[in-house]
Amino acid sequence: MVRSKTPLFLLAVLLAPALVGLVVFRLYPIALAVSDSFFNMLRGNQVFVGLDNYVALFTDSAFWKSLQVTLWFNLLINPIQIALALGLALLYVQKFKGVAFYRVLFLIPIGVSLPTAVIIWRIMLSPDGLANGVLNIAGIPGQPWLTSESLALYSIIAIATWKGISYWMIFIIGGLQNISPEIYDAARVDGIKPWQRLVFITVPLLRPTLLFVLVADVSINFLLFAPIFMLTQGGPADSTNVLMYEAFKSGFIFGDMGRAMAIIVVVVVILLLIVGLQFRLLAGKPEGK
Amino acid sequence: MKMWNTALAISMVAAMAAAPALAQDKTLNMIVIEGGDTTAMQAVVDAYTAAHPGTKINLQPYPFAQFFQVAELRLRSKDAGIDLVYVDAPLVASYASRGFLSPVDASIDTSSLVPAAIDAGKYDATQFALPINNSAQVLFYNKKLFADAGITAPDGLTAGQNASQADVDTLGSSKRWTWEQVADAAQKLTVKDGGRTTQYGFTVEQFGELYQLQPLGESLGTDVIAPDGVTAKGYLDSEAWIKAGTYWHNLYNEWAVSPKSLGYGEAAQLFGNGQLAMFAGGTWNLPILAETGVDFGVAPFPYFEGGKVLTPTGSWYVGVNAASTNQAEAFDFAKFLTTSDEGTRVWFKALNQLPVSKPLLDEISTSADFDAFPNNVFRLGVYDSLNTAKARPVTAAYGQLQDAFRTAFVDMANGVAVKDALESAVQKFESAAARVAQ
Predict the structure, then answer these.
(1) Which of A132, A273, B217, B226 could form a disulfide with B244 if both were Cys (CB 3.0 to 4.6 A apart)?
(2) Do residue B109 and residue B258 come from a single domain?
(3) How far away is chain B from the Cα of A259, in angstroms, using its nearest Cα?
(4) CA distance B399 to chain A (A)
């Protein structure tokens, strides 16, 4: 038997499942998307068209409208989700009467699968559903939650937020519990106010956790598809037509895989840029400064 | 899709190894729509395999909502795991233009089929698919709800009354209701309780689908798209379509007589519960409604006052996958299904869809079996298919057209301005069609 200092073989064996998964389920599909985006289907044959699919996107108003919807959607949903998740996490770690009930309440959305949650919300938001019933009792007319151009995107944001924040809350709780209580004790001795404690102690010390949550949340929301597919199919009047849905429609309904893959590659590039920017902004300064 | 090839190869090798004496045994695979279509197709398959013991036919059913995507993906990937495929009439061009289907064997005699149906299976003058059946749309109305409201119901076919083909021809040619009459009655038949609608006046069966709504604008004089198959400007956004769109918009908004976003089969359900006074739908609803106990009548599909009478038509075709390795066997089954006396008869009995076989159509018109209700409704189908049927447009970008059209009509029902919705549909269709036609 040969013994090496670094157990390379063991490392390889232990990392193999994760690495194989990464290659098969992440890198290979991305490579496939990139290569397919250079081809079009013409009369049953794949024809190499170079950058034509990308060039076509630049003059394609449906693509630009969809990009606009995607960016607006993410500009709203990510800060909302992270702020709410932080708020929930802060509440979660408090000690007050009935906290156990409260904790269970906010863990429920994690236990419900996304399609189930979406179907329940669809029923609640239907014209004769629970949401409008409650409004009617309060004397407010029912709202077209999912069928109006001005409301549909916000209804989807609300549903995705309801489903998502408890999950992110758990990570933030982990981060909160890593903050040493001595720091809070010292701050209390110095007589700082609760909001100062939040802004100057909690949030800065949570930065690594928040960075992870921000990156993961932005990625998930950029690729959000199921609620839109199940509730609005991109409508009404394209108000919820995010790039993922536009790509799905192009590839799987119209059979235009070249365009679909070009859109996917654009989404991946945008996502990489945003995530890169987040790392620079949030992880740049070393601690202790 | 390689998995399918491998699976098929393994199963074939296994079959050959197990029974060398039956080496020429063939297994054909066909994708069909789940539900009644599969049951009916199984009946035809049973009849066929009884006469051809060497052939086995596997049906692979998919739900309607996923069928088009599955067919598209499997055909595009040249999946030899399917031999026969169900093709919606307007998709023939789209499939054929991309080489998905084999040209139909010239030796198949199609002279017993309605010529218009045969033509709709052609692309570039070549036959790529054979018609399985036709379709006809009618107006179902609840007699009791009309009587309760004190409104005269449309002239139609009802239980307890016989009708000859000549009677039905008169009904179709001179007693057809207009959309204006439908709207008028629907408003009187809609009942609201507080903020909720407890009884709807009218709906179409397929919410926002081109198949059913194409006659709205076309009967006012303008086709959905130009004959070139790629231009929609000046067509779908024309005066005629704005008028048709406004009517549709009013059904859901100003008059609020129609329920929004009905899913597959929900119109028949509402009608069966007595919560819907009228709906425009296919003859396939007859067996479903017969079981509900609602006393209903069947009137011809309406038209706009002053417009031309046009009705939806066209239905499913069968094609042979170009990648199939069993071309001859697959065509032999397609021939049995669409042109043989036995195949067409079994299919019609099982599915209640208007046939395309001339001998069967003659039988519907003349046989005493079709005098009584609801069988005589098929005579209305015969009248419409001979006189008023208007096929859907032929374009390689039909999927794109159907989607843009549906989006526009769903949006209008949800309150988006008619002109904006139609202009957006024109723009979307034309840019997508340009990519197909390049």
Answers:
(1) B217
(2) no
(3) 9
(4) 6
* Best mutation target, B321, B411, B426, to test chain A (most A CBs within 10 A): B411
Specify the pTM: 0.82
Q: Identify the three-state secondary structure at position A64.
A: helix
The string of pLDDT tens digits covering residues A7-44 is 888 888 999 999 999 999 989 999 999 999 998 876 66
Task: Collapse the DSSP code of B375 into the 3-class scheme (helix H, G, I; strand E, B; otherwise coil) and give the result.
Answer: coil
Locate the domains of chain A by residue range: 1-36, 50-283
- The answer on B303 and B347 residing in a single domain is no
The domain in which residue B41 lies consists of 2-134+314-380
Q: Which two tokens stand for residue A80?
A: 């909302």
Predicted-complex ipTM score = 0.75
pLDDT, one tens digit per residue, over B281-321 is 999 888 889 889 899 999 999 999 999 999 998 889 999 99
Residues B413, B330, single domain; the answer is no
Q: What is the CATH number of the domain that holds B345?
A: 3.40.190.10
Q: Sign of the CA dihedral A41, A47, A52, A54?
A: positive
- B269, B373: one domain: no
> Domain spanning A50-283 has what CATH number?
1.10.3720.10
SS3 string of A99-157? HHHHHHHHHHHHHCCHHHHHHHHHHHHCCCCHHHHHHHHCCCCCCCCCCCCCCHHHHHH
Q: Please check whether residue B302 is in contact with residue B139, taking contact to mean a CB–CB distance below 8 angstroms.
A: yes
Q: What angle do CA B228, B229, B235 make, to 5 degrees?
A: 90
CB B350 within 8 A of CB B252: no
User: Among B161, B152, B163, B378, which residue's Cα sits nearest to residue B277?
Assistant: B152
Distance set, CA B34 to CA B30, B31, B38, B58, B372 (Å):
12, 9, 5, 13, 30
Which chain A residues are Cβ-neighbours of B210 within 8 angstroms?
none
The residues near A78 (Cβ < 8 Å, ≥ 6 apart) are A214, A217, A218, A221
pLDDT of B376 over the 80 cut: yes
What's the one-letter identity of residue A172?
I
B330 with B285, same domain?
no
B414:A249 CB<8 A: no
Question: Which of B69, B414, B428 faces A147 most closely, judged by CB atoms?
Answer: B414
Residue B271 C-alpha, separation from nearest chain A C-alpha, in angstroms: 19
Instruction: Determine the residue among A119, A245, A253, A263 to mutate to test chain B binding: the one whose Cβ has the most chain B Cβ atoms within 10 Å.
Output: A253
Inter-chain CB proximity A236 and B411 less than 8 Å: yes
Instruction: Indicate if B177 and B280 belong to the same structural domain.
Output: yes
Strands B55-62 and B26-33: what pairing? parallel
Instruction: Flag whether pLDDT at B11 surpasses 80.
Output: no
